[in-house]
Design goal:
CATH architecture of chain A: Roll
Shape of chain A: globular
Largest sheet of chain A: 9 strands, mixed
Largest interface: A-B, 42 and 42 residues
Radius of gyration of chain A: 15 Å
Number of domains of chain A: 1
CATH topology of chain A: 2,3-Dihydroxybiphenyl 1,2-Dioxygenase, domain 1
Number of strands of chain A: 9
Strand content of chain A: 35-45%
Oligomer: homodimer
Order of helices and strands of chain A: EHEEEEHEHEEE
Structural class of chain A: alpha+beta
Chain lengths: 134, 134
């Protein structure tokens, strides 16, 4: 079912400093910051040769990543995102296996303008998993 | 400097259950478990289309991942591993920029029989980073 690792998301307390760490210290290609108000984040994409790292800073008052940053003030890995071909088929198979889909169970349009779902960390070894229809 | 994401490492409390989650629930290809006494882990490789997830269970009395599991009994993401072409050049550049290399600063032979180094999470946004010479 899962195909590629689409990205690893890292929540950061200072987007400028995190971008410099990846660009200047680790020597990676990075994008300009993009604010996505609908997702409550400002993101910088780190473009690796086979996948992406996303550096996420909370944006706005109801950012879904604020609580994580409050708990991890230095930042840290927030989730991994795996690609699937058909997100409805994937969701139905996951629910049938007993895995919990977060929210109302309907895919939302994610930061890449593609349908996404999040799965409960307790069902995936303490790891928040995003699925994105590729 | 960094090229591909070589793997995402997830520490797990039950390797059999974690393997079933990735194989049967997420539908991924998984390897047989391999015990690496020198690294204090038993590992199952999850083979994605563009990279790997490594499911790590502590092995032996001095496993370097036991403390993480004690702190995160449900498991969780432990580190990310980026590939570099020349690990000595990478280390020297990192040290010159003020980043801390863990241990004695000399590369060790990692789980894939290639030279690796670990970098201090405090210098990389709360994220433990492994570098592997590809």
């Amino acid at each position: 079912m899962i195909g590629k690792l689409n990205h690893v998301a890292i929540v950061v307390p200072d987007l400028d400093a995190a971008t410099k760490t990846y660009r200047d210290v680790l020597g990676a290609k990075v994008s300009e910051p993009q604010t996505l108000p609908a997702h409550g984040v400002t993101v910088v994409f780190v473009l690796l040769d086979n996948t992406k790292v996303e550096l996420l800073l909370p944006y706005g008052e109801n950012s879904p990543i604020q609580a994580f940053l409050d708990k991890n003030p230095s930042g840290g890995i927030h989730h991994v995102c795996y690609e699937v071909k058909d997100i409805i088929a994937a969701r139905d198979k996951l629910k049938a296996s007993g895995a919990r889909v977060l929210g109302n169970g309907e895919p939302k349009i994610g930061a890449h303008d593609k349908p996404v779902l999040f799965l409960h960390p307790k069902d995936f070894i303490g790891t928040l998993v995003e699925l994105e229809q590729a």
